[in-house]
Specification:
Elements: H1 3-72, E1 82-89, E2 99-105, E3 108-117, E4 120-127, H2 129-137, E5 145-151, E6 157-159, H3 170-177, E7 195-201, E8 207-214, H4 216-266, E9 271-276, E10 281-284, H5 286-294, H6 296-312, E11 320-325, E12 329-338, E13 344-353, H7 355-375, E14 386-393, E15 401-407, E16 412-419, H8 424-444, H9 448-462, E17 472-478, E18 483-489, E19 494-498, E20 505-508, H10 521-524, E21 528-531, E22 536-541, H11 557-567, H12 573-588, E23 597-604
Helix pairs in contact: 1-4, 5-6, 7-8, 8-9
Length: 605
Amino acid sequence: MSKLNQFKIKLQSKFFIYYLILFSLFFTLPLTVFSLFLVQNFYSSLIEKEEDELLVKSKAISASLESSIKDRIYPSRNSKEWLSNYRVASNQKTSLEPILKIVWESESPSFHYQRRIGSEIEIWKFRADFLIDKMLDSDLTSPQETIIILNNIDQKGISSVIEDNFQINQASKEIIEGNKNLSLLSLFRKSSDSHFVISSRMPTLPFHLIIIKSKNEIISKVRLGLIRIGISFILIIIFVTSVSYFIARYMAELKKEKNKLSSFVNNLPIGAAIVTKDLKIIAANKILNQIFEENPDLHNEINKDSQFRMNSSKTNIMKYVWEIQRDKTWEVTLSPWFGEGSDPEGYSIILRDLTAKKLMFEQEMEMAKTIQEEYLPNDKADFNGLKFKVFYKPYYQVGGDYYDFIQLDDDRYLFVMADVIGHGLQAAMMMTVVKVLFLQITATSNDYLDILKKLAVSIKENLPPGKSIVPLHFIVFNTKDKRIDYANAGHPGLIYQEKKKEKDTQIFDKLNPVLGLPLNADKFLKIVSLSYSSNSRFFLFTDGLMDVMNPASVPYGEERIQNFVSNNGHLSIEEFSSKLESEILSHSEGRRYPDDITWFVIDAE
């Protein structure tokens, strides 16, 4: 082996040892501090939990013992625990309140109850053994706990410690008088003299109960936690070292696969890139790099749009396709790619230049728009006794809203409006079919109910499945008799307003089911007929007007439409239509309308 290679190996070894020490310090010190913090928190939580449990236990035991004392100790020879009673003379002039206390006589505890009766003091003695039995037999206590009942007046009482003959020993007195708090350093001592001391007074008797419990049990749990943390710390270091080795091998394999992927992407005839979940490029072909060089801001815009779509998605398997309009029209396709898991490991981005294709499409749509305009009439017709204005705005260049007005004879005029499902070229084709069907039926029938029935059947038979649901309504004016006949099949209703009652409007809402539903037409369909007065206004519209949204996604709505008609009856039909157009534009704040919009404003003279 050459000296140069030996030097390289030594240098690499030094760097490895240096980084290992640096990693150890960087990793070990924070982990040690964090571990001590966890231990302290663990200890504090155990102490707090134990104190809460002991407090609840002391109150329960205190209540139980208080009840037993009151049941057994009272100034009567009928008491179960009665020993004796007698009186002694007293020279004290001050009154003596009744006193109940625990007294030790001949190594045996008893209750003494004394009270003043005249110039004498009456003393009653009762056995206290039952109290010891009660403390020892309690289901609430454990062998690690000492229960003490103390007199309130002299701090004497009974203990549950059998070894001390149930008397309160000196150690218990010292614990009660000055309990020591446990510090973290106590964990490393062989023993600890720290205890829990919980006291609970008996509300109706002159005693209070004290529970004493050593904290050694908790200290043992904390020590065990420290041992586990230490073992975990050693295992983590071993694990990180092992993982580092496998990561190095994985990175080498990943680089190899990346080279294969780059070769594949470079051979694609369109702009393409493979990116990570945070949209960093793993591999991109020359075509995409060239596009980004010619359009510097396009890359940032694609990343921004992609991030928005990924954040908005409720699933990880969604494929997105959208367009970016600049000097050219670009189609962006974002698709996730997966490894072994269910979450995507990254995304593929495909970029296509659609400028020429979109130009051809727009030319075809413009031609379709011209054809549709030939099918849809303008509002230049002259109807005797009627003035009307039409507004029509398709979602695309062409739309699925159908409207028409027909002169049936010298005195009768028909206005019809329908809304075919969908938008664009397909909806426009369906609209044409509806128009042809309607004109064929009205040319052969003067019965308006019959027209509605035949149209319901024809739409069901002639439109493709899924497209045969058509809301429609039409109104026929008889200007001679000043009468209208109105048919509505699942469409937003006609709004009728008499100008002499400007604020008063009537709405004839959905009178019949939508045309195309599999229902018995003879059973459900009906027509509304009514007379109208001079200077009346009629307003018909498609649901696209109601669906206009503002940036907060609040629709313009039927209530606003009704209010607009009520408040603007004094305007001419041209002024009315122009003002309504301005109002929905203001409501949407420039946002694209979500549907085709059509309306008729008709004034009857």
